[in-house]
Amino acid sequence: MTATTTSHASTSTNHPAALVRPDGGPCRVLVVDDEASLSELLSMALRYEGCEVRSAGDGAGAVRAAREFRPDVVVLDIMLPDMDGLAVLGRLRREIPQVPVLFLTAKDSLEDRIAGLTAGGDDYVTKPFSLEEVVARLRGLVRRSGAAQAARGGSVLAVGDLRLDEDSHEVVRGTREVHLTATEFELLRYLMRNPRRVLSKAQILDRVWSYDFGGQANVVELYISYLRRKLESGIGMPPMIHTRRGAGYLIKPAE
Q1: What CA–CA distance (Å, rounded) separates 140 from 195?
Q2: Among candidate residues 180, 110, 99, the one with its CA nearest the CA of residue 141
């Protein structure tokens, strides 16, 4: 953490709505970083946003805290003293399978970002960053992860042999249950609410990612590839998600 980052970490005078769960209760955030000053700064800012915050300085502490605290979202440094963030993520997923995870990293190469997302992380920010950016990303993650629970009537979406339960967050292809991250779930949900309709990358970014992603539309390609692997090639099922070059993506029953 640099002094430059700290100087960017002021909260906005135009304070937005508090970061809350879909049911209106305070959002529980677990902050995992071995740099005490950064952890304290993030914790203070998140409490200012109305969150309940627990912090941990290493991977083992993060897993213990997750087990006790049951966070709604996790802010996770990718470099920790006892294990790397990707290993911690795996353990967190075993404790709380659907919890959204925002990676903090000093690395900004595309390969490092893809590694974190491929491992199951839902989003990332690179250091130095502003607290406003972290809060905006967390607000998006909480919104996406709570979308199913907040859906009216707990409806079930169906396209061919694929079913998505908006209330329980369960996804089933044929007879096989498919486990998705919060962002993958919201992307699939958007596709399934628009069967046979071509959705552009811009439409998907606007609907699934509620903030400006810096024009990196390749994140859509990345997540489409994740869904295809989990719903199709990874379980030996015929394709449902199709690319229309220059136009976008659509989902339809397998032929």
Answers
A1: 24
A2: 99
